[in-house]
Amino acid sequence: NQSHGWEEYMWLEHHIKKGEFDAVHWMFQHGYDQNKKTDDQATLMKAAEKSGLPEMIELLISYGVKRLDKI
Question: How far is the C-alpha of 67 from the C-alpha of 58, rounded, in Å?
Fold first, then answer.
């Protein structure tokens, strides 16, 4: 996997919250660390839960993103 930083996290979080499934697929297919946390403990799963889209939560789970109670 490649090393990805803050900008990539913010980009991916934005697309998760907007329900942009293709962009999320693309990031994971290109090696993004799906369980990365920010310094303030933000996670992609938190972003998915804020999106209100159960399909996005399921997509993240399918890529191995951990549920909040499993982190």
Answer: 10
